[in-house]
Design a protein that fits this description.
Strand order of the largest sheet: 1-2-3
Number of domains: 2
Distance between the termini: 40 Å
Helix content: 40-55%
Structural class: alpha+beta
Order of helices and strands: EEEHHHEEHH
Number of helices: 5
Oligomer: single chain
Largest sheet: 3 strands, antiparallel
Strand content: 5-15%
Shape: elongated
Radius of gyration: 26 Å
Number of strands: 5
């Protein structure tokens, strides 16, 4: 609808389509406010829907660059003293200086553009599921906000491994498939 196709004067709303004469109707201030609110909702919804179509394609982990690597200290037999022990991941997490340098290198390898702050250098097999902390084959630049959503999935998989409802190997396979398929 074009701006010159809508007129409001003295409580009258006038509408016109491209080849149709003016349609005039009397509206109350309440109806006019309601109509304005509905137009605003439609405009906002249109903008949000339009943004969805413009979203960049998902970045997924590469099977060749990032196949995943496991921490040899974490096995099904050791989960109680490793990944299921509160705070254990802090003892194996690599320094930020290491992951930031690797992130810059891998952004180039993956052909990704944008500021490094838009990516998290993430473990393909997370530390909480026994992924190797420093092996570059287990790290990749995962874009935000996807990285934050995946962190919640990793936490849920860890919980299932630790409560015995899922094996460590099954959780690792699930995580790897997720990141290789959906990012």
């Amino acid at each position: 609808m074009c701006a010159e196709c809508v007129q409001v004067t003295n409580g009258h709303l006038r509408l016109r389509a491209a080849s149709v004469p003016w349609i005039e109707m009397r509206v109350t201030p309440f109806e006019l406010a309601f109509l304005a609110a509905m137009v605003a909702v439609l405009v906002v919804a249109g903008v949000r829907i339009g943004r969805r179509h413009e979203a960049a394609p998902a970045v997924v982990a590469s099977w060749t660059r990032t196949p995943g690597a496991l921490n040899r200290d974490v096995t099904q037999a050791t989960i109680r003293s490793t990944i299921c022990r509160h705070g254990w991941t802090r003892t194996v997490r690599p320094p930020v200086s290491y992951t930031n340098a690797l992130k810059l290198q891998q952004l180039t390898q993956y052909g990704l553009r944008g500021p490094p702050s838009h990516f998290q250098e993430d473990h393909l097999i997370s530390l909480e599921l026994g992924g190797d902390p420093v092996d570059p084959r287990n790290l990749w630049p995962e874009p935000y906000p996807r990285a934050a959503a995946v962190d919640q999935i990793e936490d849920e998989l860890n919980r299932k491994v630790c409560d015995g409802s899922l094996s460590l190997a099954a959780a690792q396979a699930t995580e790897s498939a997720l990141k290789h398929r959906s990012g």
